[in-house]
Amino acid sequence: MDFTVFLAVIAAAAMHAGWNAILKIRLDPFLAVVLVNAACGVIALPAALWLGPPALHVWPWIGASIAIHLFYYLTLSGAYRLADMGQVYPVARGSAPLMTTLISLAVLGEPIDAQGFAGVALLAVGIVAIAWRGQGTRFDPKALRLALACGASITAYTLVDGLGARATGNPHVYSAWLFVMDSALITLFGLVWKGPAALRPALAFVGPGLAGGAMSLSAYWISIWAMTRAPIGLVAAVRESSVLFGAVIAVVVLHEPLRANRLVAAALIVGGLVLIKLH
How wide is the angle at C-alpha 65 spanned by C-alphas 103 and 230, nearest 5°? Predict the structure, then answer.
C-alpha cells in the first residue's frame, strides 16, 4: 500500500470514529443515523451535480450498496439501543476486516500475502480486545447478534463499493452519487417507518448532524478512492483502526478509565498496521 494512501485511510479512520461518537447524542440511534446521512446527501449533492451521473452499468453497484447500507444502519442503531458504543463498535468493526480480506483473497484474487493477512488478523484481534470487559459485565445476546450482523454488512458494502468504484473508473463520481442516493433512501425509509413527527426531534441536532455528516462522507469517500489504489482487504483493515481512535476519544475526551485491555489492544492494532504498511 502506497504511503500516501495509507496515511489517507488512517485520516479516514479518525473521522469515522468521530461520526460514530456523534451517534450517541441525546437522540434515538436510528434518528441520529437518519440525521447524519441526510447531512451526507446535502453535502454531496453539489459535487454529484457538478461531476454528472455515472454510466448505466454503475447503477446496479450503487443500488446494491444502498440496500446493504440500509441493513447496516438498522443493525447498528439496533445494537446501540441495547448496548454501549464501547462494546458494539469494536465487535462490528473488528469482525469486518477479516471477513473482507478472506473474501477478497479467495473470490477476487487480491494480492495479499501471509504478512498482509497476519497484519489484518492482528488488527482484528486488537479491535475486538477493546470490547473485552472481563467477568461481571454482560453483553446483551441480541446486541451481540446485531453487532455481528452489522459486521457482515460492512464486509458486503465494502466489497460492493470497492468493485463499483473500480467499474466506474472515477471513484469521485461513484462516491458522490452513492451518498446522494443513500441519503435519499434512508430519509425516505425513516419518514415511512417513523413518520414526520417522530423525525422532528432530529431538527434540534442539525449542527452535530452536519458535523457528523461531513466526517462520515469524508471518511468513506477517502476509503472508496483508496480501494481503487490498493487491495480492498488491506484498505478495509486499516480503516477499522478507527476503533483505536474511538478508544482514545473515550479516555481523553469522555474521561473513561484507561483499562489494561485497551493498552494491549492498542499495541495489537499498531502492530497490525505496521505489518500492513510494510506489506
Answer: 50
Q: Record the cell numbers describing residue 194, joined without a space.
A: 417513523
User: What pLDDT digit, counting tens, does each position of 80-111 carry?
Assistant: 788 776 677 777 777 777 777 778 777 776 66
Residue 249 CA to residue 253 CA, distance in Å, equals 5
Contact 253, 85 (CB under 8 A): no
Q: In whole angstroms, give the CA distance from residue 239 to residue 233.
A: 10
Torsion angle of the four alpha carbons 20, 23, 26, 30, in this order, in degrees rounded to the nearest 10: -160
Of 269 and 204, the one with more pLDDT:
204
- Tally of residues, the chain: 279
Write down the pTM of the prediction. 0.83
Q: What is the pLDDT of residue 134?
A: 54
Backbone angles phi and psi of 52, in degrees to 5:
85, 160
